[in-house]
């Protein structure tokens, strides 16, 4: 299983691009918790902290596809590095002015979110030019997705470590300074400087003019909703079963399950079109959410959280392949950025929906939201099957060689942007 990943990491530029992208995305992965901790340390209310974190998230969701389109038009260095600098400046301004001047605080975090560089989509656009074999490209997408699970697990720990060593303000400043260095490492590399998008048809909808892509985004809006609901229901469960430590173990187990599932999925070859396989994976994802409604003791619940995460990374990986297949010519970075945006919006909707549900019906009903959202995602895929799978397709990945087409084999994952 590990041999394919090791081979990729030995390829020139691969480790640098992967590590630089992950480091460059740390500000995005840590912003919500860093903002909340900073606002509370400055004496602000939870309502203000939540509002500022939400503003950052909304601005980020808006900015990703817009910046992704600019990357497709003008290349990576001209967009990624200036965006990273502007985002860091926005968060630095917030860190030094504080939350007391509410209008300025909202404007600063909005700028930080809006200019977050689309490094994730940029990396997936670079893999084909860095790796020689298509099978390696697919495995690289798998490794990319797995590494992100680690980043979103480690990121909050880095924030709390900075707080323990220095302060909440320092955590904001350090994460964003490190993020700029990560972006810089990527954009000064030869693959990033040399990369150019394919010629594109001028259209105001950009990547969204693809019906298949729109169908996929509709499904993953609900997948994001499921994850957002789990975070709220998990807090409610932890309040009843041991506090913050239990919540931390549950979220870590969710990430561990996704990491295991993604590692296994990406290590083997898959036959058939990915669009059909995605329906199976999303269905299994929804089914694995159901046991969470049992709300057993903390140890068993942690195990169920790990089970709930197993099919997340495979489903995302399969979605990356589909984005690559359906993105209109010259819009690959924008298309992957739309997937990140949709997932983020869905997660926000899930947190917003699960709060009242938990308040009204308790923790069990909160955990009923994820399987319902997963079921809705599956229904979207089933309803749009004709749009997603074109007649006569036999599992050929876009851009494959003639030998690959005859074999109709798709090794592991394929292309995806921020998750």
Automatic annotation (TrEMBL):
Q: Which UniProt keywords apply?
A: Membrane, Transmembrane, Transmembrane helix
Matches recorded under SUPFAM superfamilies: MFS general substrate transporter
Q: Where is this region: Disordered?
A: 399-419
Q: What is this protein called?
A: MFS transporter
Entry's transmembrane regions: 17-39, 45-67, 79-96, 140-166, 213-234, 246-266, 278-294, 300-323, 335-358, 364-383
Read off the PANTHER family from this record: MAJOR FACILITATOR SUPERFAMILY (MFS) PROFILE DOMAIN-CONTAINING PROTEIN, PTHR23542
Q: Fetch the InterPro entries from UniProt.
A: MFS (IPR011701), MFS_trans_sf (IPR036259)
């Amino acid at each position: 299983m590990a041999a394919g990943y090791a081979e990729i990491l030995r390829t020139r530029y691969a480790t640098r691009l992967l590590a630089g992208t992950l480091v460059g995305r740390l500000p995005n992965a840590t912003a919500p918790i860093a903002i909340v901790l900073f606002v509370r340390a400055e004496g602000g209310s939870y309502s203000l902290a939540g509002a500022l974190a939400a503003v950052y998230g909304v601005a980020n969701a808006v900015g990703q596809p817009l910046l992704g389109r600019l990357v497709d038009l003008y290349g990576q260095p001209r967009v990624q590095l200036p965006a990273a600098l502007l985002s860091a400046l926005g968060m630095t301004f917030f860190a030094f002015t504080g939350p007391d001047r509410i209008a300025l605080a909202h404007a600063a975090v909005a700028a930080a979110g809006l200019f977050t560089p689309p490094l994730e989509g940029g990396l997936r656009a670079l893999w084909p030019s860095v790796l020689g074999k298509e099978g390696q490209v697919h495995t690289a997408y798998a490794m990319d997705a797995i590494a992100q699970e680690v980043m979103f697990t480690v990121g909050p720990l880095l924030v709390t470590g900075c707080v323990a060593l220095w302060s909440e303000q320092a955590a904001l400043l350090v994460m964003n300074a490190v993020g700029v260095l990560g972006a810089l490492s990527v954009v000064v590399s030869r693959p990033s400087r040399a990369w150019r998008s394919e010629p594109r048809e001028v259209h105001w909808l950009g990547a969204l003019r693809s019906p298949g892509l729109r169908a996929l985004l509709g499904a993953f809006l609900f997948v994001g909703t499921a994850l957002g609901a789990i975070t709220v229901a998990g807090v409610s469960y932890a309040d009843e079963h041991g506090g913050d430590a239990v919540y931390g173990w549950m979220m870590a187990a969710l990430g561990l399950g996704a990491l295991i599932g993604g590692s296994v999925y990406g290590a083997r070859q898959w036959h058939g079109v990915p669009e059909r396989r995605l329906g199976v994976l999303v269905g299994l994802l929804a089914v694995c959410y159901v046991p969470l409604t049992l709300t057993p003791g903390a140890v068993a619940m942690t195990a169920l959280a790990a089970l709930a995460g197993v099919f997340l990374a495979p489903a995302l990986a399969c979605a990356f392949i589909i984005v690559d297949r359906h993105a209109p010519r010259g819009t690959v970075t924008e298309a992957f950025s739309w997937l990140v945006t949709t997932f983020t919006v869905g997660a926000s909707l899930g947190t917003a929906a699960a709060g009242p549900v938990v308040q009204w019906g308790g923790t069990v009903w909160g955990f009923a939201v994820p399987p319902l959202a997963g079921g809705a995602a599956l229904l979207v895929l089933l309803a749009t099957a004709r749009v997603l799978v074109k007649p006569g397709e036999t599992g050929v990945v876009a851009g494959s060689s003639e030998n690959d087409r005859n074999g109709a084999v798709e090794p592991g994952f394929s292309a995806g942007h921020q998750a």
